[in-house]
Fold each of these.
Amino acid sequence: MWCLSGPEDKRYRKDGEVSMSGVSVDVREERPISEFSYTNLILAAKEKALNGEKLDRESIIALLEIDSDSINADMLGIAAREVAEVVTGNMASVWASIGVDYKNCAMNCDFCSFGKKWGLIEQESERSTEEIIGLIDRFVSQGARWVTLRTTQFYGFDRLIRLIKEIRLAVPGNYEIVVNTGEFDDEKARRLANAGAQVVYHTLRLREGKDTRFRPEDRIDTLRSVRESPLNLAYLVEPVGMEHSNEEIADIFLKGMEYGAILSGAMARVPLPGTPFSGSGQLSERRHAQIVAVTRLAAGHHAPDICVHPPSRVAMEWGANVVVVETGAVPRDTGNCECEWNGFDMATARDYFKNAGYAFYSGDENECEK
């Protein structure tokens, strides 16, 4: 196993170069990327991440251009994992998610099983407040750091506010409530925060407006409202398919950093039968892990938590420190999940963390498990 040189090995020169273990790397912004090998590029990216610097677009694209099946990709993954150890204190956490309403959605996003046009939902249903509280209580007792209320686009906002307040009263613990819902403005963002939510999951998705029926500017308006509120932003590059270019991936990632995301990473698209992406190729695990590794290096200390979804052992070894355990209405499934999606539960998540060398962290510093 490689150990890529860290900041203790660096020697600065007056001309703007950094020497790491005898390898000189020019870290000046104006350097042309094409002059350097992938090894130098990876070392420079690691150095910037540890120094609290964000990567520029050209460097991100260059890292994404690495062949995911090559030895260079392995080196990229090792560098990202080393950065994760420093940035996170070598701690990993679970993002638990509950799909509240299993209902047809008129927005008809091409990758989502809820699209009314696809006709996959034959019997609509909705989790009761009591069911949701029970699930959250179980997830929190098992160590979930975040619990997400995921609703369809048109779930009533006032109902969501009431639900958040009831959860806060019913379930004690040092967990964070995440909201993944439709578009909202500044006033609604403040109401979410006042009700007890701490995080919003929201993204400008890949090919927004083409593979979705949403206007990109509306999605960005919601991101702006989150940034101007007390709420934190969680934002993954998603849903990634084989057809997405390195430039598209880089731009979507940078949009999240522009709006202050404190959690990033990547979600691979699941091609579902009956949707427009039925039969399309599935992103390979190593390519998915590579994208996650690049987000780790590109975000550095700015977004210390990096999530991979669906879960991937390779991505955990390449810098991801967050995985998702989800149940209920899942837009990556053609049915309503009564148990954890794909059988990936809290115990399995802990096993992934252990194998990747992380300590399990629930959000309570007194309950960090080595």
Note: Confidence is low (pLDDT under 50) at residues 6-35.
Amino acid sequence: MYKVILLLLPAICISNLSQAQLPDSLKTHIDSAFHFMQRSLYSKRVNWDAEKTAAYAAAATVANKEALFPIIANVYKKLDDHHGWFEQYNDKIRLPWKDSRQPTEAIKKEWAKGPKVAAFMIGNIAYLRIPGMHVYNQQQIDYCANWLADSVQSLAAKKPKGWIIDLRLNTGGNIVPMMSGIASFFPEGILSYYLDRNDKAVSEAVIKNKVYVQEDTIKANLKKALPDLSKQKVAVLIGRSTGSSGEGVAYNFMNRKNTRLFGENSAGVANATEGFLFNDQQSYFLLTTSQLGNKNKKPAPETLKPHVQVPVNDNFETPANDLTVKEALKWLK
């Protein structure tokens, strides 16, 4: 017992000494960073007491808050969060998506054209391509939601036998305009939840009168009511570049009846993030704070696997010749 006490004393003394020598500005900066990082979905991966003690000790030799970046970044890396990032002043750390597959040349070619909703018929099947929607003010959200909803309405008027929803170019962004534009594909009632690290629901999404509602609030304003498409047969296409909110849309379809997913595994960031500013808005965390859950609060896997795996042969210019589209058409017909 005495040996243990003797071994611990230097560490305790060093910790107290480090804190005592730290200027208040540096200590407050470290405390703020730790406060936000502990809100991460992955916070259980880190020994916070030990890391803060180490951070205080390392900070004793730095001159200013800018120099704290590598100390905080080292702790951030231990969260192993591949969906967010940390930045302050001129420094930034962002871990790459876990999936090492690179976008195909066909995907990169389409991205270079800018985001586009593609909507047309392939025979008697409706084809709808939904891009990522990185929009966050209300005007942009409403615009994108109606852009998508208008395409749905136009295709629905042609009485298709089935639908292909192509999410292979969708890297994410804001799920609100996406889900608002296609809300009528889903039955009325609870659609999904966001769950914290203890699988406790922190918010819910609902379909009410064919409108997508989050936290009891309509988040996008549609100009026209959507037709009821909740019983339509739907094939959803996913792939290596289907990420973040794109995966969220795919997961909602995965839990829908009369639906199958085709393609290859998604990007592996099927979760939700939150942003946190501090240090007079000079420091910023984007952190993964919640996971997706179905209407029964069952957590979603971070990587979605399609019902039908299809070798990559993307052809966005002529979708009827695309191998994944062909597989979807076989099932729909």
Note: The CA atoms of residues 27 and 192 lie 40 Å apart.
Amino acid sequence: MEFASASCTLQPKDPFYLMGYVQRSMPAQGIHDYPQVNTAVVSLAGHRLVICIIDVCVISREVSNQIKKDLIKKFDLDFLDITLTALHSHSCPGGTQSNHNFGAKNDDTAFLTQVKNAVSKTVAACLSNLQPASALIRKTPILGCFSNRNDLQEKYDNEIIEIEFYHQRQLLGVLLSVPCHSTVLGPNNDQCSSDLIGALRNQMAAYLKTSVIAFMAAAGDISTRQYRQSDDFMELERVSAEIFSQLKERTGFSPLSLTQFRLNLLEHTIDYDGSDRKEELYQIQKETEALLADPGLSHDQRKLSMTTKAVIENKLKNQQVHLDVITKVYHLGGLVLVAFGSELSSILGLRIKAACACPVVFMTPADEDLGYFIEADKYGQYYETIASDVPIGFPEKIVDAICGTIKQE
């Protein structure tokens, strides 16, 4: 096995808009921390696996395919060996989401060009600096920082997974899988920031003096909401520092054997006419508007209600739903890497982990973002299932297919 990592800083140009919260209507008012592109390449069994994390809210399939085709042309890579994953901060510029109905203000072609150039630059750097490597892995349960954002008592995955790659004693880079949304900052924030995962990544990179390729795991319904004291930069610093303090002690790692490469490509289609839900949607719209009229509504409730209102309006305008769900399951010997193009719930992620004898690492939302994939018994209870275009029970179908590939081991 060979490994290399590289990082590149992006510099948004004024005026630009922050993407992720419907409440925002004005351009960003500065940059708190610059977005980045962080890339790792793992060369294994004749394949060069490219893992690229981009500090944006979402990447559409159209944009990710454009970038991949450019990489293939430049570097003779295999299309299916490339994964582009959004960090999913809600305080980074737009430009990477051509079909996500976020409005023309997020159509930032200049920023998209920067992203494409940075991806190419970091991939080139990795391919030029591959070194023989060995790997170590650690799972760390994080306490008191994040949870299921709808119910503090609900079971959830709280393990951050770190994979360190070494050439002899030199640390070449770290993969950091974080099972939490990168959303401490709220809609009132008007400064560019990579938010929680970005802040944690930056602290670890400075501490370890290497590139840290950090990304969201199966965390469609996981955030800091239940523990959040505010939604500003002071709170971001508090939460990221607390998580970092639980990771800072560099003990508990074990050897990770990466000796093979097998890819299972899973393709599913969702296609239906949602017009029979009109009355239900109108009722939700009416209830949401009544909530928004309440002056006593809490800050978080108002944020969620405004988002729900926008989601329902969009659903009423677009009754026909067609989604191509593409999942890549990489079997690497002692590790299974799942690149999932949506936001998978924590419980469904745990089901996949339980089916596998070796560690499972999720990268979400990978190559695109089709929204929330939540377990059937939560439908109708929480925002995630209201916002989702995925029919009840379909997420379990995807999970069963992923587990089926794991059982082939």
Note: Residues 109-128 form the longest helix (20 residues).
